Amino acid sequence: MTNRSVDLIGADDAQASSAPAVEFREITKHFGAVTACEEVNMTLWRGQIHGVLGENGAGKSTLMKILIGLVMPDRGKILVHGEEQQISDPLDAAALGIGMVHQHFSLIDALTVWENVTLGDSGSLNPEAIRNRIGDIGDQYGLVIDPYALVGELTAGLRQRVEIIKCLRRDPQILIFDEPTAVLTPEESEQLFNSLRNVVTSERRAVALVSHKLDEMLSAADEISIMRQGRIVDHCLASETDAPTLARGIVGREVLLRSEQAALGVARTEQRSLGRDDRRSASALTETSVLRIERAVVRSPDGFRLLDELDLEVKPGEIVGVAGVEGNGQRPLGDLLSSLLALESGRVEVDGKTISSGRPGAMAVAGVGVIPEDRHDSGVVLDMTVAENLILTNPDRFAKRSVIDLKMVGAFAQQMIEEFDIQCDGPFAPMWSLSGGNQQRVVLARELAQKPKVLVAAQPTRGLDVAAIEYMSSRLRLAAEENVAILLISSELEEILDLSDRIVVLQKGQVAGEIARGEADLEHLGLLLGGSAL
Amino acid sequence: MNSFLEATYEILSSSSTYMNAALFAGLLAFAATGEWVAERAGTLNISVEAMLLTGAFTSAVGFHLTDSVVVALFAGAIGGVLVASVQAEMSHRLAADQFVVGLTLNILAFGLTGFLDREIDPTTKLARRWNIPVLNEIPLVGKALFNQPWPFYILYALIPLSWWLVYRTRWGLELRAAGENPQSADVSGIDVNKRRRQTVYYAGFTSGLGGTFLVFVQVGRFDDAIAGGRGFIAIAAVIFGGWTLRGTILGCVVFAAALSSRLSIQGLGYEVNSELLQALPYIVTIAGMAIFAHRVRAPAALARPFVRGLK
Ligand SMILES: Nc1ncnc2c1ncn2[C@@H]1O[C@H](COP(=O)(O)OP(=O)(O)OP(=O)(O)O)[C@@H](O)[C@H]1O
Ligand SMILES: [Mg+2]
């Protein structure tokens, strides 16, 4: 991946030898008043990875969905291998050798891995052949998975793995990846890009890659296009640009803030930790913990210990980062604090009071706000409006004698939309019409508006664009300054390093180590995560 | 108390008890098997009642015209499929509310068959009894399961066939996907509404056979009260069974036992308050649903219409 010159030679003869794999010509798509794509021209070459960057709502997913046949463009043409094609559903796309790894909604929880993988194929059902194919893909690309596992029981990272296998099983010549690494650990993404690079160069496939991670984009892609408000505003070779330039292109202005650079992966870690004032952490030390978890044990239905005597404390105004390889108890910890799981033994105290775990809403009433890991499962209701989602956890505030006051709700929603810069068609736009990043902002707005004592932020910047990450980070800092105790659960080490006063590492449902922020750097943390002793 | 135990013993040891129960269970199983398939794909198909009734009527007419039970069987299936075509096309092509369509069909079928019955007045009979040697000598249940009018035996193929279709074929995988998460299924390249229509047709087919069963195995003649809410009990059996086929069939047997107890108890000359007996099947149904309904997981998209791009 570092060998740029080899890639460029590949690029040259791809352009010389044949027609491009895909050509978008003046693709335009409007959703009502919203412009998702406007006169987009873009070319995918065989043997190349074409990166697509852009803010939340810039139209990246829409453009990809047009190619896979899920969205019909209002105007414009698509040429595949030089010939104009009408792609009106995913089957057409599959017939043309186009496959896509989706940002959301393509797996079915109630089915097993192999059933999900074969969904959409044709011909008679041959489980043995499918399971073998899954094994082969696993060996070839380093994406190992148990074909009999129920998808609903997998972690986000593993689900993504299934999604990718599902795409690769048909050997598509043109692959679309919409934020494939948003839920992967750094090692997993590196592995994915390594294998991707292999297929691209050796088998001359074309790849379109949507991502918000600039460093990842720079190392993985050959060419990069930047979208803003539905238009392609910049196009360059990855070898001839750098992260600050890309960041500027994405947000359309100079990116100056150090924390903003940190969010982009532009600034170095050391610089970042110096940038914080120590006033808050000093005052925090003197106060007693507002969130205290003692010897918490949580068991899965099949008897496995998800949390195994976990001890954790967070003081007011403190940001505690929870790091760890996915599947080591992060999700149960978040679920415990969302009242979704009950303790087998141990206890959870908020503000000195023991909270009965597992009773719906008990944690919320006690003042625990949660930004959940999977916003589609537990964060938002897609069928309801933005306003309804904003008041979802506390509708009583807007009710007179149990009747919801729509005017009040509308005004509140409007205020939130402005304050959190949520891109949508007004307070009563349906939630499903928002882009992924904007849905996440709705969750953030809702939880912060509650003025919680404790805020659990699980993967809060997953799927967010550069500016939104910066915004999210500053909101979390601001909340900490207002004395909210924050538990930040994240698989992004950079994010944890940037925000946390204290970092704990989870392993097998236990706190395996703790680092004060002065001692923390990427390498040290990386070693801890890898399981090496303190 | 003693006499109560004696009576219970006599009822449980009389083969006529099992005969009655098997007839009811057979009827419910025809309807519930198809209903189960439709529900797995996401349709809560309440027009199953209309499918039974229409199937019963068309089969009676089929026999009336040809004097053949085989023809009656086909005619019954066609009747059920006819109702299914309205349900399927209205709710999964035109996106009309499936309950409104189902309710309308139930009322329409009742009125129409009642009217045509008086116009045509089809003559019918019970189908010929087939006695399966050896097996019918199993104590208590042998006669109930293996000495029945021949359409009864179709169940022995229909039930495993339905299981195989749903769990072992691509069609089945796709319909389960459509019932669980239509958006994801759509993204994967499955025509969700087509699968749903097909399963409603399947429910129409099996319920149409159920209608034939009503006329030619259970009752012997058609009248417009012949379905009498059995379609709804079949729906309850699917819920009771937690949307598994095994559970659904178990539900059919349990509800059939309750439905037939009135006949069995009175047949043996016992006196029980007859209103109470009439209410019994429904009490069992409600109790069963109260106990089991929260323990099981329905198909996640059950009764939720699918429109492209909408989520
Ligand atoms: N089905 C739809 N109906 C109405 N509006 C839509 C629909 N799909 C997308 N939009 C709107 O189109 C715009 C572009 O959305 P899109 O999902 O393509 O953004 P994106 O670039 O992928 O953003 P993100 O990085 O947040 O995923 C957004 O403003 C979104 O609200
Ligand atoms: Mg997107």
Describe the structure.
Chain A has 534 residues and is of the alpha/beta class. Among the domains of chain A are: 2-97 and 213-264, 3-Layer(aba) Sandwich (Rossmann fold), CATH 3.40.50.300; 380-451, no CATH class. Helices cover 37% and strands 24% of the residues of chain A. In chain A, strands 6-7-8-3-9-10 form a six-stranded mixed sheet, sandwiched between helices. In chain A, helix 10 crosses helix 19. Chain A is globular. Mean pLDDT of chain A is 81; it is low at 1-16 and 265-284. Chain B has a domain at 22-231: ABC transporter involved in vitamin B12 uptake, BtuC, CATH 1.10.3470.10. The model of chain B has no long low-confidence stretch (mean pLDDT 90). In chain B, helix 3 packs across helix 10 and helix 3 (48-66) packs across helix 11 (230-240). Chain B is globular, with a radius of gyration of 20 Å. Chain B is mostly helical. Chain B has a two-stranded antiparallel ribbon with strand order 1-2. The interface between A and B is medium-sized, with 27 and 23 residues.
In short, what is this structure?
The complex is a heterodimer of chains A (534) and B (311). Chain A is built from 21 helices and 22 strands.
How is the topology of this model organized?
The complex is a heterodimer of chains A (534) and B (311).
Chain A lengths: L3 H14 L4 E10 L2 E11 L4 E6 L5 H9 L6 E6 L2 E2 L5 H6 L2 E4 L11 H6 L8 H15 L14 H13 L5 E5 L7 H18 L2 E5 L3 H7 L2 E6 L2 E7 L5 H9 L6 H7 L4 H6 L4 H8 L4 E9 L5 E10 L4 E5 L6 H8 L7 E6 L2 E3 L6 H4 L2 E4 L3 H5 L6 H6 L7 E2 L2 E2 L1 H14 L16 H14 L4 E5 L7 H16 L3 E5 L3 H7 L2 E6 L2 E7 L5 H8 L5
Parallel strand pairs in A: 3-8, 3-9, 6-7, 7-8, 13-20, 13-21, 16-19, 19-20
Antiparallel strand pairs in A: 1-2, 1-4, 4-5, 9-10, 11-12, 11-14, 14-15, 17-18, 21-22
Helix pairs in contact in A: 10-19
Chain B lengths: L1 H12 L1 H26 L7 H19 L2 H24 L5 H23 L8 E3 L10 H5 E3 L4 H15 L1 H11 L1 H6 L4 H28 L10 H11 L4 H23 L6 H19 L19
Antiparallel strand pairs in B: 1-2
Helix pairs in contact in B: 2-7, 2-10, 2-11, 2-12, 3-4, 3-5, 3-10, 3-11, 4-5, 4-10, 7-8, 8-10, 11-12, 11-13, 12-13
Bound molecules: adenosine-5'-triphosphate and magnesium ion.
The site of magnesium ion (MG) has 6 residues of chain A, from helix 2.
